[in-house]
């Protein structure tokens, strides 16, 4: 195996050295670069970071959630995945039905007010429990709108038709591997105002050469410390799954970033990470009995030989 995360570590270093101080939607502030590209050779291993532990179980459940065409956080909560909680919770506490403690600007207040943080975490836990237990509540407040799952699997056209972009691109890879239209897009200007979080990874394209499948992602907004390690591993996993179904080997994952940023309250964390020595990349195991990307369950995907440094905690900017 080989060390695969060097492009990511170089990205962190480049942002720290050359990044522009920039305001942002969350009010946190960032160090930011525009237009950056990383390449990962998936034949040499699976690009799961070793300089900090990355929760692969969360990556698996989120990707399977997308591939199901699901947009409700209930599936994620059933698999102990809380990475989308804040956006659904925000929808709930801003609704006319919410009568609990004031949760205005809960993301920033929880960082600066320990007493409020306890109240917030209690309310969010109660919210998640209700999503799991109450079907009606889950339907109304667990749904995030037309986020990735909806755009990938049931894109709605003006005339009421539904397009399954994932199935279509799989069919085209099998039947028209030289096509330059092997593209899935998540960015729909009509739906952006209604989305809890407009798609950050907006478009990806596949490329077939010499029996290998490669993929390039364009990501408009990239939270480099928290989000990008997940994005790298998620799309690497997607390439493996689609390569399996289409009878191809894995090639490269090319990650192109628009606004690549490190939040100001993540600076110490990335410095800690840069001080660590990377290790050989792990490998991925896929259940050989499963062929279709839509048949995989959590237990059908495993990471092997993963020996990371400890995780590094950092707050999510909402």
From TrEMBL:
One of its GO terms (biological process) is dTTP biosynthetic process. InterPro entries: Thymidate_synth/dCMP_Mease, Thymidate_synth/dCMP_Mease_dom, Thymidate_synth/dCMP_Mease_sf, Thymidylate_synthase, Thymidylate_synthase_AS. Keywords: Cytoplasm, Methyltransferase, Nucleotide biosynthesis, Transferase. Residues 7-318 form the Thymidylate synthase/dCMP hydroxymethylase domain. It comes from Liquorilactobacillus sucicola DSM 21376 = JCM 15457. Its main location: cytoplasm. Catalyzes the reductive methylation of 2'-deoxyuridine-5'-monophosphate (dUMP) to 2'-deoxythymidine-5'-monophosphate (dTMP) while utilizing 5,10-methylenetetrahydrofolate (mTHF) as the methyl donor and reductant in the reaction, yielding dihydrofolate (DHF) as a by-product. This enzymatic reaction provides an intracellular de novo source of dTMP, an essential precursor for DNA biosynthesis. It catalyses: dUMP + (6R)-5,10-methylene-5,6,7,8-tetrahydrofolate = 7,8-dihydrofolate + dTMP. The active site is at 200 (nucleophile), 200. The keyword Cytoplasm applies. One of its GO terms (cellular component) is cytosol. The keyword Transferase applies. Pathway: Pyrimidine metabolism; dTTP biosynthesis. It is found in: Cytoplasm. DUMP binds at residues 25, 180-181, 220-223, 231, 261-263. (6R)-5,10-methylene-5,6,7,8-tetrahydrofolate binds at residues 223, 317. Belongs to the thymidylate synthase family. Bacterial-type ThyA subfamily. Its EC number is 2.1.1.45. Homodimer. This is Thymidylate synthase. PANTHER family: THYMIDYLATE SYNTHASE, THYMIDYLATE SYNTHASE 1. One of its GO terms (molecular function) is thymidylate synthase activity.
